[in-house]
Amino acid sequence: MKGLGYIKDETLKSLIKIGTKGFFPLFEDVCSKKIYDIKSIRMTKKEKHEAKKLLTRLEKHKCLDRKKTIIHSLLDEEKEILIKAFLNLVEGQIIDERPGIQ
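Request: output the structure for the sequence above.
Response:
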């Protein structure tokens, strides 16, 4: 999940960069409480595969509101996987920007 190489959508990349500052507009009003309930962002291979499918599904929509609608329609397990993936991507971006903090 580290790195943004396979993400082509510039909007999603921008949301990840905003996430490095602690702001998560993609999950605002949809499942923001779930972000703080997740104890570990480690993911299994199955979760990573599911996360890639979910991120690809989000990439198809350019508008933030449509992305939020997709997230809102997900099952709770899918939301948790998406949040973990997003936080992994944010963490990867932070490490890429500041390699000394590893």
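The longest helix spans residues 76-97.
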